[in-house]
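Field: sequence (string)
Field: structure_tokens (string)

Example rows 1 and 2, in order.
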Amino acid sequence: MLWGTAGVGALGLFVALEIAARRYGQPGPVADQLAAAIFAPKPGPLYGGLALMSVVLTWPQRIIAAGVAIGLDAVLVLVRWAADIKVADGHFFGNGALLVMLGYAVIAVTRRTGPERVLLLKGVGLGLLLVAGRKTGDSWLLITSKTRPLVLDQYVATADHALGNPSWLAGRLLQATGPFGIHVLDLVYAKLAVAAIVVALYQLRHVVVERRFPSHHLVRTFLVIGLLGPGIYMLFPVVGPVFAYGPGASGTGGVEWAAANLWPHTPLPITTPQLMPYDEITPRNCMPSLHTAWAVAIFIHTRKGSRILRFAGTFWMVATLAATLGFGYHYGVDLVAGVVFALTVEAALRALDRGWDRQGIQLVAYGTAVFAALLVSYRYLPLEMARHQEVSGPLLILAMASVVYGYVRTARLWEPAAVAARRPEPQPEPV
């Protein structure tokens, strides 16, 4: 029933986003996904989705699936080349992966029965959900730019004084590192989904043997964060410091839309914030920082992995936080909200698996209250926060730290108690 309800809800969301995107002259997630079966696909996690689906396959089946996908892509590339069909850079491969996933869905319905059919359909659904999540996100970002002409960047930038304008500082530090530091952080920021797939594959490595999925894994957290986050974008539209206070980026606004060209070298003056109009191209995707939320989720889900995986999860989180600030995509207060948001979502999913015990309800309620308080303070108290940095800054960090502490404490209570090995009773020696 849970999988069925989730499927119906996802289908309803896709249809609604398709209709909304069509109103603005763009294809929605359903049309994009159908087109990707034949036409040159946009860069995205199509092969990542195939990799996730393959956790329900044996190794020979995985090799065959990968070979068929690559072969189909090679044929389609040759057909486009022979027909002189021009495609954009990076839009060459991916059709084969999608076609193989759809083929396995047909196999599950026609050639499998009982638990084996359910398991294969779950694998296919997991892979397709990853692909659909990316396309759904693109539609959401389009909708935020079209329906929210006024942004709250002046409010968030003013509130960011409480933390000492960390994006301005990180931007200058990143520029001082030169091309190497910029390239490394850009790679980490752009490949966050790849890191998540690697961690998910590690968590799901035993599915093919156990013939069942674990009750909780990273993909669930990733998808729920991506589902809920854009709704908050609509309530709290923010474009980010590089767009609101900097030179912008090619094709996504510019200085003509910025309040002032200050980022990252000139500290922002403390003035009364106002709503600010912005273009209909740049997504309003800053509050909260979903890159931060996803990076925190990766960190959490690598804690029980190998030493290398734990190190990689820590590195990816730290580097992602540095990139979000250093490239000017987010304010410091976005990151604080992103951490609270991620921990609250993770706690809710784990509490759902456990049956909503008292500790889970308290933690989710507290995280939700803190997150709401952060947004309210950014919107209605930014000037007071900027003028009293010595109080507001520590309070922000304390609020975030309290949610972190609550999650760690509750997660430890949820861990199965270690059963001490029973010491053997002394036996009388034979006479």
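Row 2 begins here:
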Amino acid sequence: MRRTWAVVLAGVTVCTAVSGAPATAGQRDGTPTASQTPSPTAAGPGERAAGIGWSDKDSGSTERFRGLSAVSRSAAWVAGSGGSVLRTTDGGRTWRDVSPPGAAGLELRDIETFGKRGAVALAIGAGDASRVFRTEDGGAHWRETFRNTDPAAFYNCVTFFDRRNGLIVGDPVDGKFRVLATRDGGRHWRPLPSDGMPAARQGEANFAAGGQCLTSAGGRHAWFATGGAETSRVFRTTDRGRHWRAAETPVPAAAPARGVFALAFRDPGHGLAVGGDYRPGQPSPRASAVTGNGGSSWRVSARPVPAYRSGVTWLPHTGRAAVAVGPTGSDLTVDGGRNWRTFDHGSYDTVDCAPDFGCWAAGEKGRVARLEVRATPTGSARAPLPDLVPLPGPGTRAIHPL
């Protein structure tokens, strides 16, 4: 079956034809046939073809930002090396340094925000390098709400179900992954019992590469990703972390640098996984996978992301479109993760979207960008993309099957 998907943004239509046919036995390594490869189609009369692209914003920093939270098209927070936290409220034109006092020697790898002024930032590392900071006033004041005292523990990612309930996942301690929980918005954290956690495998761990090794959807479902063991796995819970089940993924592991690095779920059933081998120059075959049953099973993308990717997010209000990022490029899918196409070759570590289609990416050397639509004349989708088309406000953008 062949479907055409139209991305309608501010009156500009992007059409992409994607084959829905299943892969044959000869295609199970993820190599697409011609019929599986997405291809642009011409816009209709009076329309302009369009493509998406990153618009760089000068953060004024040289730190590496692996933590990111998109609040809106105007507001975003980034967190990174040197204990740095920056915040913008004007679409990236200016950035305010709101770093927590005393965090200069820490690696802040994840940040979650609540509205415009509340945030929880996670510092990663062994022993007391793993810490949590919380602010309620836009970063003017911070309070340290957790400091790890177990030298064997190393925490990696944080997620929140709502403004009060959240989880932090860490590498295995005594053979099982360690999970912390909060019920008061990150003011206090407690370790969850390990009796509901499956045993970790030899060498298995999380990756704190982009703050997306742990994610949640709905009020009680969460997932975390692993690598390093013989196979990569995704652990899932339906009761806010009390009990977990694990499922293998087709993303290769079997080395400390390989596995699933980032997860994104648009609802409790439909999820994406990306990863690969983070070592420069190393191949990353079958580096993306999809699930439609809540993570009970995973299948490799028909056309996977072409290289290691450390971040992934669903585009809001679309149902089937998502963006993945990594040090060598950014990719777009319009069919729920089955087929990916590269649209940018810049370096980013993490990506996140707000409900008003405010999608941001961040990475090395202080790099921060916002996703834009770039328009071209009708019939010249491969031509240079000179002008930026503003994205619309809430309720006016969509991706539709035609």
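free_text_note (row 2): The longest strand covers residues 50-58.
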